Amino acid sequence: MNNETSNPTSQPSGPENTSLIVDSLAQLSYVIQSVLGRSGAMYDLSPIQLRLLGILRDREPNMKQLAERLELDKSSITGLIDRAERRHLVERIPSPEDRRGFNVRLTPDGRRIAREIGGEIERRIGELAGVLTETEREQLASLALKVAEARSRPS
Amino acid sequence: MNNETSNPTSQPSGPENTSLIVDSLAQLSYVIQSVLGRSGAMYDLSPIQLRLLGILRDREPNMKQLAERLELDKSSITGLIDRAERRHLVERIPSPEDRRGFNVRLTPDGRRIAREIGGEIERRIGELAGVLTETEREQLASLALKVAEARSRPS
DNA sequence: ATATTTTAGTTTGTCTAACAAACAATATAG
DNA sequence: CTATATTGTTTGTTAGACAAACTAAAATAT
To answer: Which domain of life does this protein belong to (chains A, B) (predicted)?
Structure first.
């Protein structure tokens, strides 16, 4: 959830330290989202548009695959890509192997903007991570990745 | 941004290992947001409504303070609270010291739901964090918190 | 004290984001 | 070859977000 100063029922310790990790991860994720949001806003990109560009940096998925990855309804993807296409960030490429479908790819413009925003995000997150030592940063990166890759089952 | 298999320009190492930490934090934050989103959806709460409940668990801010904390325009808060109030999750309490303002507080219903969702989130994040050892979990919690608290300057 | 300015919140209008249900076109299975 | 499933769009609805204009109250200045 959100709290700054959470852990309202702070027990001594015990094995149910679960809410510490929960709160800190939730907190962290809001902070990161805020950084991403502000970076995107510099280029007038909504969080979901920004995320789209991030995904397309090294993929050319079709609409269905985008829907799965973004956990959105396919009908939401239509609008998302429509708006991105209108802004010349992405394009629909007719799929060579399925005449119903399209692959979505970054335009050169889209790729440039993705690169620029990427730099901005690195700068800002780098700044945040500046409160850690190099060793801590490596630890955090490794642990974060481990958790991030632990999903799969949409539970 | 988003990638699973990012780091497209993976240099040997050098001091600009910055994109590793960036990518892993971004990844992690999307995973956490997804967990929060699915937990909220169980109670038909949007991400922002969920976050609102989280904030109100131990605060009674006025509209302005909510706008600041959520980084939203004050006019967005009006609608957010209207909808939450319609669902009997929160209530506007006329501020005793400023007749223009309100404090927003959870209703008993809202508090109950916040508690239930909190449990759900703990269960799910606990599951994710299950891939870590206890020591790693503690490390991650501590590092995450340290970074989360490093903000303040909206940059 | 009262006039001016600032602040808190709402309203209105506009756009994006999301979903669900119905649909069209194409693919796949029987 | 027909029936069924899949891919994506359309239509209609709601939530979420912003900006500008506005109201009421509070704070400040004169």
So the answer is: Bacteria
Q: Give protein residues whose Cβ lies within 7 A of nucleic acid chain C.
A: A 46, 48-49, 71-73, 75-76, 79-80, 83, 98-100; B 62-65, 74-75, 77-79, 81, 92, 95, 98, 100-102
Run of H or E residues at B61? none
Give A-chain residues touching B27 at CB under 8 angstroms.
144-145, 148
| Torsion angle of C-alpha atoms A20, A29, A35, A38, degrees rounded to 10 | -130
Q: Which of residues 90-129 of B touch A (CB under 8 A)?
A: 114, 117-118, 121-122, 124-129
> Residue A8 domain-assigned?
no
Confidence (pTM): 0.87
The total of structural domains in chain A comes to 1
Choose among A55, A142, A150: nearest Cβ to B128: A150
Range of the domain at A96: 18-152
Which nucleotides of strand D come closer than 7 angstroms to any CB of the protein? Answer: 6-12, 15-21, 24-27
Residue B106 counted as domain residue: yes
pLDDT (tens, 9 = 90+) of chain A, 155 residues, equals 444 334 333 333 334 567 889 999 999 999 999 999 999 999 999 999 999 999 999 999 999 999 999 999 999 999 999 999 999 999 999 999 999 999 999 999 999 999 999 999 999 999 999 999 999 999 999 999 999 998 754 33
pLDDT reported for residue A152: 55
Alpha helix (H) residue ranges in chain A: 18-42, 47-56, 63-70, 74-86, 108-128, 134-148
- For A36, residues 6+ apart whose C-beta sits below 8 A from its C-beta are A47, A50, A121, B1, B26, B29
In a domain, B3, yes or no: no
What would the two tokens of residue B109 be? 């219903």
* Interatomic CA–C1' length for residue A82 and nucleotide C28, angstroms: 29
Average pLDDT of span B29-50? 96
Provide the CATH number for the domain around residue B22.
1.10.10.10
